[in-house]
Design a protein that fits this description.
By secondary structure, the protein is of the alpha+beta class. The protein has two domains: 14-71, Winged helix-like DNA-binding domain superfamily/Winged helix DNA-binding domain (Arc Repressor Mutant, subunit A, Orthogonal Bundle), CATH 1.10.10; 79-257, Beta-Lactamase, CATH 3.30.450. Helix content is 43%, strand content 19%. It contains eight helices and eight strands, in the order αααββαβββαααβββα. The strands form two sheets. The protein has a six-stranded antiparallel β-sheet, sandwiched between helices. The protein has a two-stranded antiparallel ribbon with strand order 1-2. Helix 2 (34-41) packs across helix 3 (45-57) and helix 4 (79-103) packs antiparallel against helix 8 (236-257). It starts with 13 loop residues before the first helix and ends with a helix.
Length: 258
């Protein structure tokens, strides 16, 4: 059996959530100042400073000579990985904000790592009933819109490697049915987009499109999330068209950077 869907805890603790979000930012993006962290979290500088001090104490962060905080020993990633994620995120944020302005729904940028999908950027909409930020969160790739899009880009032998039985020896119930997954991925390749109705989280619908590099390889996925009560399948094509326009604009920005 697959893991149960992710649901927020009934009594979230804001300080813990802030600390985890800061840790994810440092791990994914390579570094940030107190002011930048405070702005991202929407908290006072003093609050951001206390959060960072605790992360430094527990080796989740370090402070360099320029007073910039970076991932500590517990969170260190390869420099290349940080650089790629940081560039993707920086280039994508203006486009995410533009999509939110047009659709008024939360919009995300997601990358795949093995059999997981990681949210590296998230811009919330302003509606009272909305999907909150998923930035820094990780989900099984085959249960998310973005993950399915990125898996659909893999040749069959690479898909076999990602879901090789030996990788799931200690958790066999989490391995998807590859025959069923391949059928779904073929459909997604034909469509060029994916829709996720309450597959990763209850009460949530997500629609996503791929973001590709100059060689045509899918680097990430641009996806919007909304409460399922607001989803109207008759609006699907206009929503996909808006996401595709944003993805093409992001691809142009990335190409110019190169």
């Amino acid at each position: 059996m697959d893991k149960p869907l992710k649901t927020p805890p009934p009594y979230p603790i804001a300080s813990v959530d802030h600390a985890l979000r800061v840790a994810a930012m440092l791990q994914l993006e390579g570094g940030a100042t107190v002011s930048q962290i405070a702005e991202r979290l929407g908290v006072a500088r003093s609050t951001a400073h206390r959060l960072l001090a605790m992360l430094v104490y527990r080796d989740f962060a370090v402070q360099d000579e320029n007073r910039t905080y970076r991932a500590g020993p517990v969170l260190e990633l390869a420099a290349h990985s940080q650089s790629l994620v940081s560039r993707l995120r920086a280039a994508a944020l203006p486009h995410l904000h533009r999509v939110v302005g047009l659709l008024d729904e939360t919009t995300n940028l997601i990358v795949r790592s093995g059999d997981t999908a990681r949210f590296i950027a998230s811009v919330e909409c302003r509606q009272a009933l909305r999907v909150g930020s998923r930035e820094g969160m990780v989900f099984p790739a085959h249960r998310t819109t973005a993950g399915l899009l990125l898996l659909a880009d893999l040749p069959d032998e690479e898909l076999e490697e990602v879901y090789a039985p030996e990788r799931y020896r200690d958790r066999p119930g989490e391995r998807p049915d590859l025959s069923r997954l391949r059928s779904e991925l073929r459909r997604i390749r034909r469509n060029g987009f994916a829709v996720n109705q309450e597959r990763s989280e209850r009460g949530l619908v997500a629609i996503g499109v791929p973001v590709r590099d100059l060689a045509g390889t899918a680097l990430a996925s641009l996806a919007m999330s909304m409460p399922s009560v607001r989803y109207d399948r008759h609006r699907l094509q206009p929503l996909v068209a808006t996401l595709n326009a944003a993805a093409r604009a992001l691809e142009e920005d990335l190409a110019e950077q190169r």
